[in-house]
Amino acid sequence: MRSIWNGAISFGLVSIPIKLVNATENRSISFRQIHTEDGGRIRYRKVCELDGEEVPTAEIGKAYEESDGSMIPITDEDLAALPLPTAKTIEIVAFVPASRIDPLQMDAAYYLSASGVPAAKPYTLLREALKRSDRVAIAKFALRGRERLGMLRVVDDVIIMHGLLWPDEIRRPEGVAPETSVTVREAELDLADALMDTLGEVDLDTLHDDYREAVEQMIAAKAEGVPEAAPAPRAEPGGQVIDLMAALENSVRAAKEARGEETPDASVTDLSARQQPPRSAATPKESGTKKSTARTAAKKTASGASSARKTTSKASAGGKAAEKKSTARRTTAKKTPQKAPEKVGEKTPEKKTPPRKRSA
User: Fold this and answer.
1) How buried is residue 191: exposed, middle or buried, by Cβ count under 10 Å (0-12/13-18/19+)?
2) 283 Cβ contact partners less than 8 Å away, ≥ 6 residues apart
3) Which pLDDT tens digit goes with each residue over 168-210?
4) H/E element holding 74?
């Protein structure tokens, strides 16, 4: 790999000659600008504003622009003459635990390669010292016209330097966090933990850029004259989350199904009973209402059923009582003989008393 900078690591009184090699590369696909009418390339020409002539790269220099628009030329010799100890040296200033470094500060990464045979011994000494201390080295170095902050750590048998942003280059996250007061329940945290456990870990080496592969396939198809394929259907954006618990439970179930794991019924509740019907736009949701529409409807249904049962019971009881009264009346009528109606003018015959028998 080609080095982009040559210098030395200053480790106390120890100097380690090294070469700086890019540890990362940008594999994103770049495009050229063209004239859509005829496909001609659109190029940017560097033209001097005074004479209107195009200027070659060899005649282009640097300058600092003052507030009034005047230019102060700056040459590479001027920059090289600056009294900076880090001009050609990576100066280690401290050793700190890796947890002290905020990942937000990390920038580009570089491999530090030992330059020549004499650098092998001090290079190995620094590498093993970093391994045994379980710490990282904080250093200052100058690269591409500015002084930078760096962090040295060990990966396998190589010392790697991460460029770090200066503390004043990191903006404070003011107004980024939600300002609304939200209470998270323990059940929701438990489901979130279950989702994290279900997703588990991933081998980072298996991850790749799907977008870049799709663009490469599209370019290859256009180059071969293959007709364009039908666009893939886009996933509909998710709607408003109505029930966070249902969303978490659904996520756990989907993650387990993706891993081929069986989802027991006891671990995930039925989501159909938890989902609420969408509210009408003309009926705003009352603040402070804690019962869902589904639960209210269920209670109303249960209340109606209970009232119906009570009405049926009363009607049945009333019918039985009426039946008992009718039966009693019929029984009394049978026991009591009915008198024959008297005719007008008819005399009632007198009853004759039978004569008494005399005893002898």
Assistant:
1) buried
2) none
3) 999 888 888 888 888 888 988 988 888 888 887 878 888 888 8
4) strand 71-74
